[in-house]
Amino acid sequence: MDRNQPCPCGSDHPYEACCGVFHGGAKAPTPEALMRSRFSAFVLGKADYLRQTWHTSTRPTSLNLDDSPRWQSLSVLSASQHGDQGTVHFRAVYKDQADWGYLEEASEFIREFGVWYYLAGNPTQGVLKPGRNDHCPCGSGRKYKNCCLA
User: Fold this and answer.
1) Three-class SS state of 120
2) For the residues of 26-88, what is the DSSP string, one character each?
3) What is the pLDDT at residue 149?
4) 56: Cβ–Cβ under 8 A, 6 or more apart, which residues?
5) What is the average pLDDT across 18-24?
6) What does the radius of gyration of the chain's CA atoms come to, in whole angstroms?
7) pLDDT classification of 129: cutoffs 50, 70, 90
8) CB of 24 within 8 A of CB of 48?
9) What is residue 9's predicted lDDT score, i.e. its pLDDT?
10) Residue 7 carries which DSSP code?
């Protein structure tokens, strides 16, 4: 990814100054920063980073991202931190072939020895049916009819 491109997490910062820092080895300072970096890792196919930031008690033995949908945008709905525990409620929009969908989850995070890890979450998924005059789900800010529908 070009270092000056906007970060996939939607922060409006360049990737290198945002999630690229964490993908390069820095530790995320908050549950929200970790969740955003994990979303960017899904977008960029960084399965090793995802496994590394997953708590050992819930970490999958392997992670294959080959059949993942094309992640488009992220909205953080709320984030909280209380001591060494945190929660981030988010909605991620994706495109799978010609269909638009979303995944919404209230993720749980835990901090051990100063490092935040993704612990668990209960995701819900749904289908998006954007109208021609709705904002495009890809996150461009343009109307659907002038963006991905065109």
Assistant:
1) strand
2) PPPSSHHHHHHHHHHHHHHT-HHHHHHTB-TTT--S----TT--EEEEEEEEEEEEETTEEEE
3) 67
4) 117
5) 97
6) 16
7) confident
8) no
9) 95
10) P
Paired tokens of 17: 């100054």
CA distance 35 to 116: 10
The greatest distance separating any two alpha carbons of the chain, rounded to the nearest whole angstrom, comes to: 50
Helices vs strands, H then E, count in the chain: 3, 5
Tokens 């970490």 locate to 59
The DSSP code for 145 is G
Going by DSSP bridges, is the β-strand pair 124-128/70-82 parallel, antiparallel, or unpaired? unpaired
What's the pTM?
Answer: 0.91
d(CA 13, CA 16): 8
Structural tokens at position 29:
């300072």
